[in-house]
Amino acid sequence: MCAGDINVVIGIVSTAAYEGNLRLVNGSDYTEGRLEIFHDDQWGSICDNTWFGDDASVACRQMGLGNVKYAYQDYGPGQGPVHLDDVDCRGTEMYITTCQKGDWGVNNCGHDSDVGMSCFLFEGKSMPIGLFLNFGWNLKTVTFV
Ligand SMILES: [Ca+2]
Ligand SMILES: [Ca+2]
């Protein structure tokens, strides 16, 4: 690398299948869609009972995205299990699974109540930006507005 080169490292949105991970499906890209969570080796949906902006903001944060764009949108019914219901986040949690919620699989919902939502890609997002300058990596956390 030549002196003066600048590399910017940005976050990566992962939709990999591991316990508790989230993804948005059936939208035009990964910032919008029906919200699904991976649990017990399968993707499932989340019921929209008590689903409000605070809950959606935790979902956006966990997925590495920016602020909530719309907490309620319809991206069609899921087909797997309804994994969660009655999610109640304070809004500061890093993961949906640390919010108050019903037990896994316990719900009184059909797939017509599946959560659909969207997040901004960068607005409100905080993340480390690495600048490789002459003397090595210099990490700063920046927040997009
Ligand atoms: Ca809630
Ligand atoms: Ca319910």
UniProtKB/TrEMBL annotation:
* Disulfide cross-links: 89-99
Q: Name it.
A: SRCR domain-containing protein
Q: Can you give the residue ranges of the SRCR domain?
A: 22-120
User: Which InterPro entries does the record cross-reference, listed alphabetically?
Assistant: SRCR, SRCR-like_dom_sf
Q: Which SMART domains match?
A: SR (SM00202)
For this record, an example GO cellular component is: membrane
Q: Which UniProt keywords apply?
A: Disulfide bond, Glycoprotein
The reply on keyword Disulfide bond is: yes
**Which Pfam families does this entry report, sorted A to Z?**
SRCR (PF00530)
Tell me the organism's taxonomic lineage: Eukaryota, Metazoa, Echinodermata, Eleutherozoa, Echinozoa
Which residues constitute the signal peptide according to the record? none
